[in-house]
Amino acid sequence: MTSRELAEEFTDLWDELGVPHINEMLAKNVSVELLEFFVEYAEQFAAELDGEQLRSGLPNLLVIGYLIRLLEERVE
Predict the structure, then answer these.
(1) Do both 20 and 40 map to the same domain?
(2) Residue 20: predicted pLDDT
(3) Residue 22 in 3-state DSSP?
(4) Number of domains composing the chain
(5) Same-domain pairing of 53 and 26
(6) Residue 22 has what pLDDT?
(7) Sign of the CA dihedral 44, 50, 51, 54?
(8) How would you write the pLDDT of the chain (76 residues) with one tens digit per residue?
(9) What is the extent of the structural domain holding 18?
């Protein structure tokens, strides 16, 4: 399975999850510190942009999360 196929499968699954399941998955896999960071970063990111800029910048925000995960794996 390619990285793209894996991402597509995951996002399809994510779209089907309800809030309780998403919260459970996050609690099991993401530290509170990282969640807090992304909440703060996303709020700052969104506050500085208008609608069109926000839409065009969202892929960058998603990639940041992916790159952080790659860095975590390399540091471990």
Answers:
(1) no
(2) 95
(3) helix
(4) 2
(5) no
(6) 92
(7) negative
(8) 898 899 999 999 999 999 999 999 999 988 999 999 989 988 988 888 888 888 888 888 889 988 998 898 899 7
(9) 1-30
Q: How many angstroms separate the CA atoms of 61 and 49, rounded?
A: 13
What is d(CA 46, CA 14) in angstroms, rounded to the nearest whole number?
Answer: 22
CB 45 within 8 A of CB 61: yes
How far apart are alpha carbons 71 and 53 in whole angstroms?
27
Is 49:42 a contact under the CB 8 Å cutoff? no
At residue 1, the pLDDT reads: 87
Pair 35, 54 in one domain: yes
Cα–Cα distance between 31 and 18 in angstroms, integer?
20
CA dist 67 and 51 (Å) reads: 25
- What number of CA atoms fall less than 13 Å from residue 44's CA on the CB side? 7
